TrEMBL record:
Protein name as catalogued: Golgi apparatus protein 1
Entry annotated with the keyword Hydrolase: no
Pfam family, one: Cys_rich_FGFR
GO molecular function: fibroblast growth factor binding
Per-repeat ranges for Cys-rich GLG: 181-241, 310-369, 433-500, 505-564, 625-684, 692-749, 750-808, 875-938
Sequence intervals crossing the membrane: 1025-1048
InterPro entries in alphabetical order: Cys-rich_GLG1_repeat (IPR001893), Cys-rich_GLG1_repeat_euk (IPR017873), GLG1 (IPR039728)
UniProt KW keywords: Glycoprotein, Membrane, Repeat, Sialic acid, Signal, Transmembrane, Transmembrane helix
Amino acid sequence: MADCIRVPLLLLLMCILSYVHPIRGDNAYNNVIIKPGGNAENLQNQAGGPGAAAGNPGPADRSPVAGASPPRRRSAGWKLAEEAVCRDDLTRLCPKHSWNNNLAVLECLQDKKEETEIAADCNHLLWNYKLNLTTDPKFESVAVEVCKSTIAEDIHSQGEVIACLEKGLVREAEEQPGAHAIHDDCKKAIMRVAELSSDDFHLDRYLYFSCRDDRERFCENTPAGEGRVYKCLFNHKFEEAMSERCREALTTRQKLIAQDYKVSYSLAKACKADLRKYRCSMDTNMPRAREARLSYLLLCLESAVHRGRVVSGECQGEMLDYRRMLMEDFSLSPEIVLHCRSEIEAHCSGLHRKGRTLHCLMRVGRGDMGAIDTLCQKALQTLIQEADPGADYRIDRALNEACESVIQTACKHIRNGDPMILSCLMEHLYTEKMVEDCEHRLLELQYFIARDWKLDPILYKKCQGDASRLCHTHGWNETNDSIPPGAVFSCLYRHAYRSVEQGRRLSRDCKVEVQRILHQRALDVKLDPELQRRCMTDLGKWCSEKTEAGQELECLQDHMEDLVTSCRDVVGNLTELESEDIQIEALLMRACEPVIQAHCHEVADNQIDTGDLMECLVQNKHQKEMNEKCAVGVTHFQLIQIKDFRFSYKFKMACKEDVLKLCPNIKKKVDVVICLSTTVRNDTLQDAKEQRVSVKCRKQLRVEELEMSEDIRLDPDLYDSCKQDINRLCQNVAFGNAQVTECLKENKRQLTQRCHQRVFKLQEVEMMDPELDYQLMRVCKHMIRRFCTEADGKNVLQCLKQNKNSELMDPKCKQMITKRQITQNTDYRLNPVLRKSCKADIPKFCQSILNKATGDSELEGQVISCLKLKYADQRLSPDCEDQIRVILQESALDYRLDPQLQIHCTQEISRLCPEEAAAQEQTGQVEECLKVNLLKIKQEGCKKVQKLPQVLSSSRADPFVSPLVSSEMSCLMEALQDKRVRLQPECKKRLQDRIDMWSYAAKIAPAEGFSDLAMQVMTSPSKNYILAVIGLGVALLFLMGLLCGRITKRVTQELKDR
């Protein structure tokens, strides 16, 4: 064993107690003890030089100890208690029964000197004594004998035994191949020697000789004593200039510290009082017991800090150093070395320094580089808890170095080392300030912090009371099998979003922190342990190609119906939570920052579990501040909401009782909205005394209906029915702003039957409630404010129609009103006012047309044409007559408002009146053109269709119909016949043309019945001729009747005669 350089007497003292003492008795122990003095100097020279030269401990190294006995070797046992320089301290500090045992005296004085002063001479005597223990070759034979199972080779080099034993102890702890079992007493002796050499690195001879040059290079100005040189060398362990031999020796000592914190003099001294105060060292008789491990010390004291207890600053400083040490070098954790060996060899070899191996293992644990063994995952989680980097990011050197630039720019307002630094970094994840290396290191660490709520110190501080009260958790470093650490946060957020009626809500401070964690988890699906665990299969099946930030959760939401039950439940719960607090979607909030600041800053600042922010974003989705990312995100959330009404928080809270009462067993939001809307509409039409849907639900229902009208995709039935038509007719039309729906309306004649039926039903609903007509409300928003502020929502379109020709009317709004008028005139069912006013007249006069009608297709204006005919005869009820008059006036101004004219006269209009038809402003030009060119119309359908003569004749019946005549027609006609009245030539010409056209219209207009026919005959200039022809015809028929009657009679007589 070539690495062994020193021989520890103290080790043998412990081993002799258990092995040699039963054979040799007490004298055997003292016979091998060397009294400090001149021999020590010789031994130092043999080992490589005097103590003063080696470590420069002070003048006492270079002269005999004052007051000590002269150098001599005792045949009988020499005792420290006999030395005069230590007698006073020994009498004052150590019990008398321990004086006969040098080891007991050494331990007593070593421990007490931390609490009280010991005479300088005595202190120096103890130092020389410990040095002699680690340099005397006479104990090698005893060490080989006692620890022969550990030492496989003969030891001939001076002082290498203890180094071999320490490495053997480490190999056994790590269960390395070929490791030898070491007896517990021998382990205790090894650890005790390491502990006694912890204050001065000169006392660890192997490390001293391995690191002499490195000490001069890195720690030249660091004085020896109190473990300062050790700490200095630890801090420079991974420097490029550090020799490999020194780094190996330092690592061995760090591993011993990990097994027993007392091997670190500075840590044991700084934290001694705190360990006693918080009862962290319950079993001091076994140095390698659980309470002695560095991990236990750290967990115990960290628990006290997290509970708000006072731990001395000196102790916390030491803890910080050793937590950083654990994060820098994975090999200091035996569990990591033991359980992660295959992962290290496969993925992380060659990354030993500065915590890179540990972060590589974290990346494997995240699933970014393949599967990881369960025990390795558990060992990583335990190490993260021990090091607790969440409390101070500087503990994680790899993270600190990777994120230094981000911290300096994005988080410079936060105090260095504050736990909020990690939260700040998470807030800037996926932003322009984040760098790639920092992003990776941060997500690797947060993956493990997210799996134990205690590892976020701010969350633990604010929520420990709530967690204990609601989730039955224990202390910071205590485990509870009934509720694992990963389940505590789920418990907290379930209580965070409970209603007042449900009770047992979180405190305000805790709820804020729970929301902060939820915001962070929304950035990466792997930061949500429950989601990742339950949805691992579905993520691989449906979302393997979704690698961008936030895409995985969106993918799961898109495939909600396809997910396994357990995954669907957790995705559903998370989506329901987002509907209440959309700020959880951190990426969406960043994308929507401009529109939030411009239009939603009040609800964003004051939002408390109401869902107002998302509602505001939806309402302002088409503002100029809205960017594409935000619009896509908001629309996606709207599309997800239609899958389940619970995903719309405000709707759920307002209508929960109504849904249970009126629409049970309905889950999809769109179906629930239709169900409730139908109920409201039926109650309204039937004039029910009391609405079955509550007021608050009706109010929220209106919001949901308006949102659904904005994008055809939010109405799945309509979208599915018209998908083929959209691809064919509206493929270049963008979704949103109801543009696709409007495109389908404009191409209604070309739609497939199924789509046409759905669009007709949609139009029927919109005409009954114009507020649901998104395009109308959007285009005419300002005109509604100007003209219709006092109008009821359902009368908005009627109000706009009445003000359509106002000089203040916006042209775009006017055009939109015209479109809606055209739609209304295609079918009386699309005109609620006309339908109500003529509900008795329509079945009375137009029943034959109704018999041919279907429930979901237009009548193309046939019923309205029927009513126009009866209007000319003045046979309609007053209310119906008023509505038909309005329609006649409107269609006289715009030929497009007459569906029959559109159908039968399209070609003639294109041929005879192209310029008039192309005019943007229709003021009756086309009708006037057709009247002027009435004799030129060749198409029989247009010439004989009832509509044209009706319009022309109706103009005579109602002087207000014709747009080019501004006074009553009868008055003008009288003025035309009166020679005393002078009319303008143009007016006179128009009136004469109108008389001629009426005459022609009367000629080609068919009579409706016998009375109409008789009237036409009696008023005809050829009345006598017509009556003569009719009389002649009757006479001829009479004569023929007589003749036919005689022939019949003769035949009958002849038959009788026979």
